Amino acid sequence: MTTTLPNRASDVSTQNPFRVMVVDDSAIIRGFLSRYLSEDPEVDVVTTANNGEIAIRQLGVHKIEVVVLDIEMPVMDGMTALPKMLEKQPGLQVVMASTLTLKNAEISLRALQMGAVDYVPKPETARSVNANIDFRRELVEKVKAWARRSRDKRGEEMPVVIDPSKKSHGVSFIKPAAERSSGRPAASGFVTAARPSRPAATVVGRAGGNDRTATGVQESGATAISLRKGSLKTPKILAVGSSTGGPQALMKFFGQFQKPPKVPVVITQHMPANFTAILANHLGQATGWPSKEAVHGEEVQAGHIYVAPGGKHLILKKEDNKILTILTDDAPENFCKPAVDPLFRSLSDIYGDAALAVVLTGMGHDGLKGARDLTQKGGTVYAQDEASSVVWGMPGAVATAGLCTQVLPLDQLGAKTFNRLQGGA
Predict the structure, then answer these.
(1) What is the pTM of this model?
(2) CB proximity list for 196: less than 8 A, separation 6 or greater
């Protein structure tokens, strides 16, 4: 079954909207997902399908940029359809939508290895799908983030929303959620005109000192970034924070390490329960290092990866000359649990100028306050650059605040971090 949706009935019109297909075997869920996406004026749900076979045929009928793809469907399931879709339309952005089971968490992360770009944890019932505001917001923002990144690569114009009720000839120019400084991505609303294609960050000036402590100014698009001096001490801990686009970024980041680091590695990736355990397993398989979802009260060891579990904050605490993983049930920070800020804050008190934190792609500004605390104690912060980020929210927040010693493309960031952990510049 396929449905082609009518244009949004409103005085508001959109030039170059993001073109989306929703694939789910439940007519009710398809309807909810399509409605949530269509309520955002930058998104046009051009068609839907109730199984993978029909969805593949629809790729030949409609010009589609992003597919929201269910996993379990009759005739052809999502995992069977995924490689066929990518073969038929290279560059297609596929976001997997699955319920929060351990099985589906494993399948969703396996789908990322097969070419899907992201996942959205879907509530288990139609009623909860309809009632869950966080799910609605995450769905819309992830679809838009990946569509925006796809257009960046192709050099295609971004959506422009025209609302006759607004000034400036009905065109309202507001930065997209990826660029806003607020911690919480905005819910869908009448906002417009995403930025044009962004250039890669370039270093336009540095002031003396060796590379390890160099300062200067770096430009990312139209944003000038002031780099700060890093600590001369060889780091004793590596902490990484990430969100949207994070699972793939983590794989690429650690793939640049030549061997296990001589320090413990702690990671906060914005993910729900079940997904974080699977992520830890995948990181262990990819790196060959011991990797696990963190448990309460365990002493951290060099060369081991500890991933914050979904629904808990991970911090480190020093007791009797041991550094322990502590899980807390404190309130969400920056609307996230786990959050990056608590982890970074805990490092500043224990490690001081021997702490190294890295902020990868992600929405919002989680990690900013923690990075500020860390640098005030002498610690060092690196960030992924704008051009290589899916969403330059979290890394952009720490970079534009002047907290970073390095702001680098993802394909250089891991190697630079590894070298620094080895005592290099």
Answers:
(1) 0.84
(2) 157, 158
Task: Please say if 270 is a catalytic residue.
Answer: yes
322-328, strands of its sheet edge to edge: 298-299, 322-328, 313-319
One-letter amino acid identity for 97?
A: A
Q: Which residue of the set 98, 108, 231, 243 is catalytic?
A: 243
Inform me whether the pLDDT recorded for 172 exceeds 80: no
Q: Is residue 118 flagged as an active site residue?
A: no
Per annotation, catalytic residue among 24, 40, 366, 385: 366
| Domain spans of the chain, in order of start | 2-179, 202-421
Give the pLDDT score at 101: 87
Q: Cα–Cα–Cα angle for 177, 180, 186, nearest 5°? A: 45
Task: Give the model confidence (pLDDT) of 87-103 as tens digits.
Answer: 999 999 999 998 878 89
Structure letter (DSSP) for residue 378? T
Catalytic residue among 25, 270, 313, 348: 270
* Distance from chain centroid for Cα 401: 20
User: Range with the lowest mean pLDDT among 70-79, 218-227, 257-266, 316-325?
Assistant: 218-227
CATH for 2-179 is: 3.40.50.2300
CATH no. of 202-421: 3.40.50.180
Q: Is 11 a catalytic residue?
A: no
Report residue 349 CA to chain centroid gap.
Answer: 27
CB–CB of 68/97 below 8 Å? yes
What's at 220, amino acid-wise? Answer: S
DSSP annotation of 310 reads T
